[in-house]
Amino acid sequence: MSDSEFDKKIRRSAGGFLSVSGFFSTTANRSYVENYAGNDTNETDRTQSALFEIEIDETVNKFQYADISKNSAFENEAEILFTMGAVFRIQSVDHDSRGVWSVKLKLTGEEYEELQKLTHRMIDKTLGGGPKVSLASLMIKMGKYGEAQQLLSEIIDDPSIIIDSKALAGVHHHLGLVYKYMEQEQNAVKHYQLSLQMKRQLEEPEPSSLACTMNCLGLRCLPQEQEPIIECLIVISQLYYEYNMFHDALETRQRALSLQSKLYTSDHIDIASSLLFIGQLYRHTKNYDQTLVYFNQCLKIYPVNYGEEHVDITQLLRKIELTTNQMNEEAIVGDGVPL
Fold first, then answer.
1. Boundaries of CATH 3.90.176.10 in the chain?
2. Model confidence over 78-125: pLDDT tens digits?
3. Is 244 helix (H, G, I), strand (E, B) or coil?
4. Where are the TPR repeats (predicted)?
5. Is domain 128-219 annotated with CATH 1.10.620.20?
């Protein structure tokens, strides 16, 4: 096994799980397998020698395995074969005096149950609405939009879904997706808006889920409905900013600014807000020239909307001063002059 693969899957995963994608051939004859384990005497070889020792709980039948020694071409092999998808817990990883890694694994039902719970949580978080919504999602991917629409329309009337705001929001999102593919723009916008409204009202809204629906809604709004698009883009850019995804935040807010410039007068306060936000993003990426460009554009708009002594103007002037100082300091360091 290569160094990187061994570190990632085994050595750094002690206490975690090891899953095998194919059939896993093992032996009950330790001396037989030790001949093949090798050692680490070859310092130029970027591989690791490992011996796996497996403990089996015979009361567990989640994963199939069998003693096939009688069917083997080698009498001393004592082969035990595990089925595809078997999951083991990595109990310990030790390096012995021969330079061979000794990896102790355990096959029990515990791993299976934990992984099943994790899988279900991930599905619920991503889709919401349970197996039927998963089926509808699959239908959408297969291009069976009519069948998906019919199934989702049935799910939306399910009493267990109606009382679950998160699940219901997921159903509306999927209906929006279906209608988008069916080129029914009004219906798509309607269901995306319902989904967004429900997600915002959750006790703990998930930023990634909100951003997904907002993005879909922004793309589907009709030309005369510019303000909902702008609102979505602004919120998405703020979410990207919170997750330190500055490039995506910048790209999204610039799209919002482009639409604002077409919809509002050049001295509108919302345009100033976008200019300030974009300037701050450039400042985070240390592009101070662009930072000052956007800050100064914002500064031209503020006096039209605020009094000269307004706190926002004072704060912006301070930001411009700090940015100018940072730019000058980095220029001095770049020239090799000590500060």
1. 5-40+47-111
2. 888 877 667 788 889 988 877 788 899 887 665 545 555 544 444 444
3. coil
4. 272-305
5. no
